[in-house]
């Protein structure tokens, strides 16, 4: 049997890493014994917390894939966020909760649903296929849903995510509120990261119509702590803007306790933030109240106003 590479997006988050592991396991259970999880970048501290909690190894790093390799994409479908030579691969399946941003010349299995987390879809796939959800798999799924929905508080949260969290907490025997807060807080620890690394942690290349941009999101329990690095962050952002010829770089510093985001916006189209949110940037920054979801509260609003 040929090998199948299962992986999520670059700048991997907890959903991407755990979905790769969980999807590879589902494939194996269904007879695709050569399915294996990979990652496209470094593990962040939140995911490290989850893997340590479960005493699991991180998936192997994948630098490039061979031509015609079988791949399954989870938690992304945009080639920009995927492995560099994706165009030479044979995509077999996509399991995702983002808007469709790809095209192939051949048919494939695509399962996307507008839910808060890829793991919520995988939870359903396990049930549909009558595959047992073990304590470990339940813990992985639960961690990702908590992460993507910020403890079910993000506007991306659906009833299905809530239902999954309730059931998975029982299987995992985890008090999800207590565990979830510890896990999210572990992810806000920026010590030991260089400015360049912070700017890569959760960066996504997203174009607002023809405005070329990067939106990076950093979770924190204290916006003030992160804003103390504002000058260095701006210097790093300006460097990336120049290198990648970006029109705008948005850094969202998201307060996971109070559900707000401080945005730093740089680049020649930075004023688009003012138009989109009806706010004034002062010294390149402004607080966006109630904004926590890049997918639901940033991308569509910025695109609409571009
Ligand atoms: Mn993700
Ligand atoms: Mn996700």
Please render the helix and strand layout as text.
Layout: E1 4-7, H1 14-29, E2 35-39, H2 45-54, E3 60-61, E4 70-74, E5 90-96, E6 109-112, H3 118-128, H4 135-149, H5 159-172, H6 176-187, H7 195-198, E7 203-208, E8 211-220, H8 223-227, H9 230-244, E9 248-255, E10 260-266, H10 272-277, E11 285-288, H11 294-297, H12 299-305
Parallel strand pairs: 1-2, 1-4, 2-3, 4-5, 5-6, 8-9
Antiparallel strand pairs: 7-8, 9-10, 10-11
Helix pairs in contact: 1-3, 1-4, 2-4, 2-6, 3-4, 4-5, 4-6
The structure holds manganese (II) ion (2 copies).
Notes on the protein architecture:
This protein is of the alpha/beta class. The protein has two domains: 4-186, inorganic pyrophosphatase (n-terminal core), CATH 3.90.1640; 195-305, Roll (Diaminopimelate Epimerase, Chain A, domain 1). It is built from twelve helices and eleven strands. The chain has helices spanning 14-29, 45-54, 118-128, 135-149, 159-172, 176-187, 195-198, 223-227, 230-244, 272-277, 294-297, 299-305, and strands at residues 4-7, 35-39, 60-61, 70-74, 90-96, 109-112, 203-208, 211-220, 248-255, 260-266, 285-288. A six-stranded parallel β-sheet has the order 3-2-1-4-5-6. The protein has a five-stranded mixed β-sheet with strand order 7-8-9-10-11. The longest helix has 16 residues, at 14-29.
